[in-house]
Amino acid sequence: MYSQIDSNKRKTRILIALFCSFIIGLGWLGAYYLGFGYDAVILALILSIVMTLVSYYKGDAIALASSGAKEITATENPYVYRMVENLAISQGMPMPRVHIIDSPALNAFATGRDPQHASVAVTTGLINALENEELEGVLAHEMAHIKNYDIRVMTIVIVLVGAVSLLADMFFRMNLLGGKRDSDSKAGGILMIVGVVLLILSPIIAELIKLAISRKREYLADASGALMTRYPEGLARALEKIQHSDVPLKNANSATAHLFISNPFKGKMFANMFSTHPPIEERIKRLRENVT
After folding, report:
1. Which residues pair with 99 in a beta bridge?
2. How many CA within 13 A on the CB side of residue 211?
3. Are the beta carbons of 135 and 126 closer than 8 angstroms?
4. Contact predicate 51/167, CB 8 Å
5. Which residues are the active-site residues?
6. Edge to edge, what strands does the sheet with 69-71 contain?
7. Do the Cβ atoms of 288 and 232 come closer than 8 Å?
8. Measured between alpha carbons, how far is 63 from 69 in angstroms, rounded to an integer?
9. How many CB atoms lie within 10 A of CB 61?
10. Beta strands per DSSP E along the chain
11. Environment class of residue 187 by beta-carbon count within 10 Å: exposed (0-12), middle (13-18) or buried (19+)?
12. Measuring CA to CA, which residue among 287, 202, 206 is closest to residue 30?
């Protein structure tokens, strides 16, 4: 488990570094080869900063509101609230806000910018379907996302994807209007074509990097959650039940899909295309392969 955690942390740092380098390269491409100058890059960076601030401070509220989550207290649902509280105490973590989503879907997610400003949300379907140890395993998985600062990492990644799409769209539209750089030479024309192709493909590349990071964080949270409960089988059995449920989450959207413990678009056409989640079979296998 510890080896899995170290490996995923290392790979995630590499992916984010590649992501940032990709954004810088995209800006340089538009500014230099396509001849737009650095004013466009500066404007895009300013917009990205604004996006970052909004996502950092209000991203959790937006995610909770869009999913229809309602905050509960210890008196309203002591079963779920006390389970989260016990996990927080055992890990020396601040108590996150607890939310319930009125949905028959089997799912849960965590959000926030740090352990001091975090929330956990679970569906009523998940609460009703899982046994005590299984629900504890799912909640430990979500608490692991908070403890490992995955909630912050994924907020940053979402903003980076948005920045790439913004830069690509801006440069592509400006290129249609005519760039400033002289492209009379054959070499210049080839570079122009390469630049336009990269700008068209860049949002797809950015999305693929985001998916890779999301999948690594899920494996990491599985391993960390199992260490919290000292009972990997609980989460493994919960994932089996989640896997066999094909009820989609009604209020799910592509912007928040990566937050959930399982793909919220189950049963919908193209639900597995560009999924932010690794195969559940592989997650179950990793949880059980080191258990004797």
Report:
1. 71, 121
2. 16
3. yes
4. no
5. 142
6. 69-71, 97-101, 117-123, 108-114
7. yes
8. 9
9. 12
10. 69-71, 97-101, 108-114, 117-123
11. exposed
12. 202
Tokens of 114: 């740090």
Q: What is the reported pTM?
A: 0.76
Tokens 């140890």 locate to 133
Instruction: Take residue 243 and report the two structure tokens written for it.
Output: 């896997």
Is 259 within 8 Å of 267 (Cβ atoms)?
A: no
Inter-residue long-range contacts of 19-26, CB under 8 Å, 24+ positions, other chains counted:
19/157, 19/160, 19/206, 19/209, 19/210, 19/213, 20/160, 22/164, 22/202, 22/205, 22/206, 22/209, 23/160, 23/163, 23/164, 23/167, 26/164, 26/167, 26/168, 26/171, 26/198, 26/199, 26/202
What are the tens digits of pLDDT across the range 121-152? 999 999 999 999 999 999 999 999 999 888 87
Q: Give residue limits of the domains in the chain.
A: 2-288
Least confident of 41-50, 80-89, 250-259: 41-50
